[in-house]
Amino acid sequence: MTIEGVEELHGVEYEIIPDRIVAGTLLLAGAVTRGDVTVTRCNPDHLRVMLEKLEECGVETTTGADWARVRAGSIKGGTEILTAPYPGFPTDLQPPMLAFFCTCPGTSVIEESIFNARFSYVNELARMGADVKVASNAAIVKGVDTLSGAPVEAPDIRAGAALVLAGLGAAGETEIIGLEYIDRGHERLEEMLSDLGAQVQRSSGVTPLVEPSGMF
Q: What is the pLDDT of residue 208?
């Protein structure tokens, strides 16, 4: 990149692009709960690779000019993912996608090519009954019949969102601490999920409570 300076700058109007990570997380919430979720005011092109991977698992996806919809009545199996810079699969959607894979029949593989040590949250999913093995920069996920609610801790922003999604698809109650991480990347996440029919509440103490929500 080469920049040539100017004597002065002038004003301009600019519209910030929609957050593909928040949009993708909400769509994955629908997939985890085998629900039907539509996200508006997003750019489906930015979500294309994630939607394609969901389709490989049996999720029905449809898109419009500024919306995307997932319908996950049944899942046929898992798939393989390699994170990559845009337009590849976003590394920030790797944790919530892995949470979805925990509920898929068969075996799924996620290879992380952007950041090192980004599977630290897998131990928290194991508390919920997930079957995930990490080898170097890859995670091998074997789907289980049912995740179980448990007390867990969010180690970072996207892992925190993944634990929320896992809690939505789990039997029983899930308590998550580490809200400061989730709030940094997902403003009012519990409100959006509640609007979709989830049973999520932010407690007055240090933990919110995530209850199984069933189908959205």
A: 47
Q: What are 48-61's pLDDT values in tens digits?
A: 999 999 999 999 99
C-alpha torsion sign, points 43, 45, 46, 48: positive
**Who's near 145: CB < 8 A, 6+ residues apart?**
none
Contacts of 157 (CB under 8 A, 6+ apart): 92, 181, 182, 184, 185, 186
DSSP-assigned beta bridge partners for residue 209: 175, 201
Query: CA-to-CA distance for 122 and 18, rounded, in angstroms?
Result: 28
Count of other CB atoms within 10 angstroms of residue 2: 3
Q: Long-range contacts of range 144-148, CB-CB < 8 Å, 24 or more positions apart?
A: 144/102, 144/103, 146/170, 146/171, 147/102, 147/103, 147/171, 148/172
Q: Output the pLDDT for position 167.
A: 97
Extract the tokens encoding 211: 């209850």
Q: Confidence class of residue 145 from pLDDT cuts 50, 70 and 90?
A: very high
Q: How far is Cα 162 from Cα 168, in angstroms, rounded to an integer? A: 10
Terminal CA-to-CA distance of the chain, rounded, Å?
46
Query: Mean pLDDT over all residues of the chain?
Result: 93
